[in-house]
Amino acid sequence: MQEVGFLGMGIMGKAMAMNLLRHGFKVHVWNRTLSKCIELKEHGAFVEETPAAVIKKCKVTIGMLSDPAAALSVVFDKGGILEEVCHGKGYIDMSTVDAETSIKIGEAVNDKGGVFLEAPVSGSKKPAEDGQLIILAAGEKALYDGVLPAFDVLGKKSFYLGEVGNGAKMKLVVNMIMGSMMNAFSEGLVLADKSGLSPTTLLEVLDLGAIANPMFRMKGPSMVSSDFNPAFPLKHQQKDMRLALALGDENAVSMPVAAAANESFKKARSIGLGDLDFSAVYEIFKVTEPSP
Ligand SMILES: NC(=O)C1=CN([C@@H]2O[C@H](COP(=O)(O)OP(=O)(O)OC[C@H]3O[C@@H](n4cnc5c(N)ncnc54)[C@H](OP(=O)(O)O)[C@@H]3O)[C@@H](O)[C@H]2O)C=CC1
Ligand SMILES: O=CC(=O)O
């Protein structure tokens, strides 16, 4: 399988498609905003006009879209996947969505004779550029086995998690934890600063102890210098918190920490920080109450 379709040239999709091109895959790309395909074309990609046109040209097509509405749109809308998907074609949705969305897409693809895999990823812009993603796949096993050469280029490890929905759920659990950690980290940085300590020294202390982790190490210095250039947009992290909380509702799991973190991300969105990196949630903790 050296030819692959790719829908969605956002931060992740572009990095992943570039990576496939670098490794010798022929890649047919589509993006709602066509101009984002120009750089891909310069690197040898074939640009198509609709998702259906991509599906028509490729046996396997990958989607990397922002949210459930976008993931559904490329399948069900005019010019969408369902117009061309048929026996012998596979669709792989790597967007972060809820299980319900994935199941709906999978059933529609199957009804047309195609096969479906969900495969959301853990890892951000840099791991996508470096082929170091963690792939959380579920659905048609034969499609999973067939696409492993591409997954090996995109990721450092692929998990096969069984029936459609399990990949989405695993991804939401992981991002729920990540979003909650980002809130605690932000609170700690502000607490250090407001109580007269150096946030930079706090980063050094954290990195030497039991709660050291790659996220604090990578995001800490840019947060301290107020650099929120987006790798993982805050609006997507809030979407993931919202979908994870819904999963908690369905399963009667009490999630007070995640619920509080979701409120912080919502607040950050409400003041216009949604397109910045998710670490920009830090900004809302800096706001102090006016003294009486
Ligand atoms: N960034 C990250 O670190 C990570 C992101 N993810 C997940 O991957 C997915 C993509 O993320 P990312 O690349 O960062 O997001 P971006 O916001 O950079 O890109 C979103 C993509 O979705 C497309 N899109 C949005 N709405 C629609 C629509 N209605 N119809 C068709 N296309 C649409 C955009 O097209 P257009 O250019 O026209 O707006 C764009 O190609 C998300 O589900 C995210 O949660 C997962 C792991 C890491
Ligand atoms: O979904 C975001 C990530 O970093 O993983």
TrEMBL record:
Flavoprotein among keywords: no
Pfam families, A to Z: NAD_binding_11 (PF14833), NAD_binding_2 (PF03446)
Alphabetized GO MF terms: glyoxylate reductase (NADPH) activity; NAD binding; NADP binding
Keyword Membrane: no
InterPro entries: 6-PGluconate_DH-like_C_sf, 6PGD_dom2, 6PGDH_NADP-bd, HIBADH-like_NADP-bd, HIBADH-related, HIBADH-related_NP60_sf, NAD(P)-bd_dom_sf
Catalytic activity from the UniProt record: 4-hydroxybutanoate + NADP(+) = succinate semialdehyde + NADPH + H(+); glycolate + NADP(+) = glyoxylate + NADPH + H(+)
Sequence ranges assigned to domain 6-phosphogluconate dehydrogenase NADP-binding in this UniProt record: 3-162
Entry annotation: catalytic residues: 171
PANTHER family: GLYOXYLATE_SUCCINIC SEMIALDEHYDE REDUCTASE 1, OXIDOREDUCTASE GLYR1-RELATED
Family listed: Belongs to the HIBADH-related family. NP60 subfamily.
Role summary: Catalyzes the NADPH-dependent reduction of glyoxylate to glycolate as well as succinic semialdehyde (SSA) to gamma-hydroxybutyrate in vitro. May function in redox homeostasis and play a role in oxidative stress tolerance by detoxifying glyoxylate and SSA generated in glycolate metabolism and GABA metabolism, respectively.
Protein name, as recorded: 6-phosphogluconate dehydrogenase NADP-binding domain-containing protein
Source organism of the structure: Mikania micrantha (bitter vine)
